[in-house]
Write a structure and sequence with these properties.
Transmembrane segments: 30-51, 71-91, 112-133, 145-168, 180-197, 209-227, 239-261, 273-292
Organism: Meridianimarinicoccus marinus
Number of strands: 3
Shape: globular
Radius of gyration: 19 Å
Structural class: mainly alpha
Protein name: CPBP family intramembrane glutamic endopeptidase
GO molecular function, one term: hydrolase activity
InterPro entries: Rce1/LyrA-like_dom
């Protein structure tokens, strides 16, 4: 991608990042983010171990790795809260950036998130309907339990997706954009890292590479929406709908299934032999992105 001026709204959003743009600040900022994220979660796990016993704590870790029950899935999603805190602290302490420089103006953030959520809903609902015409899903949670859990499920997914957008689009993309003019760097590098962190061969087996590529593609689309609108709102809303479909509505065994109403007849490991299945799942995501690009101001 050739160098080009930053879109005006994005340039205004990340203006505070220009006061301390040095790359040497970014590395310790990312370390601080990781320390807060991993440290707080480790501290909570240790507190649980001290209270309930280390055997139960080890058992909890093993269950979280699978996340096949509502409790473990909710705990896993809630564990992203320290990630958001870490990003906010890194931006403040290393770059003197206020929270709004990571999110965009509050009103714009929520408005764009709502618009993206509605657009995503309008695209994903018929897409799931079409999927059911050619595939047979299997029951997972009892419908009554699923409905009772739905408010907690949606809140947990909103937290998880907000934390990831805050880190990758708000902090990392913004900090790179004030140092580099090429979108290949400030949009492409965070997307590449986002994809790499979704590469989990231990859980996904042969399907891990396809999942990582899909995550990187999402990262590029989210980067584009953030740059065009000057807010992570649209990226967050689209991320929320995508993850809700994949976690709460139709989960794939081998991923987080504890909150899903239905599950696919195949596992995520099976997708390794048919990567086109993963790429096909990107169709509603790309369609939603194209609609949002035309709807939202730039």
């Amino acid at each position: 991608m050739p160098a080009r001026p930053l879109p005006p709204r994005f340039s205004a959003m990340i203006a505070p990042a220009r006061t301390r743009p040095a790359l040497w600040r970014l590395a310790p900022g990312l370390v601080l983010l990781a320390v807060v994220y991993l440290g707080l979660n480790a501290a909570l796990w240790a507190a649980y171990g001290l209270g309930a016993g280390w055997d139960r704590a080890e058992m909890l870790l093993a269950k979280l790795a699978v996340a096949s029950t509502p409790a473990t899935a909710l705990i896993l999603l809630a564990s992203f809260a320290p990630m958001a805190l870490g990003a906010a602290l890194a931006a403040r302490l290393m770059h003197r950036r206020p929270l709004c420089s990571l999110t965009g103006p509050g009103g714009v953030l929520m408005r764009h998130a709502g618009i993206a959520g509605l657009v995503g809903l309008a695209v994903y609902v018929p897409a799931l309907g079409l999927w059911h015409l050619v595939q047979d899903s299997q029951p997972n949670l009892p419908p009554g339990l699923w409905v009772r859990l739905l408010p907690l499920t949606l809140a947990a997914i909103a937290l998880q997706t907000f934390a990831e957008e805050l880190v990758f689009r708000g902090y990392l993309q913004g900090q790179l954009a004030v140092r580099f003019t090429r979108p290949l760097i400030w949009a492409g590098l965070p997307a590449l890292v986002f994809g790499a962190l979704h590469h989990d061969p231990a859980r996904m087996g042969d399907g891990a590479l396809a999942a990582a590529i899909a995550a990187a593609i999402f990262g590029l689309l989210a980067a584009d929406l953030t740059a065009r609108t000057g807010s992570i709102g649209a990226a967050w809303g689209l991320h929320f709908v995508n993850n809700t479909a994949a976690i709460a509505v139709l989960a794939t065994p081998g991923t987080i299934t504890g909150l899903g109403l239905r599950v696919t007849p195949y596992t995520v490991q099976d997708l390794g032999g048919s990567p086109m299945g993963t790429l096909t799942d990107l169709i509603p995501l790309v369609a939603s992105w194209l609609i949002l690009r035309r709807m939202l101001p730039r």
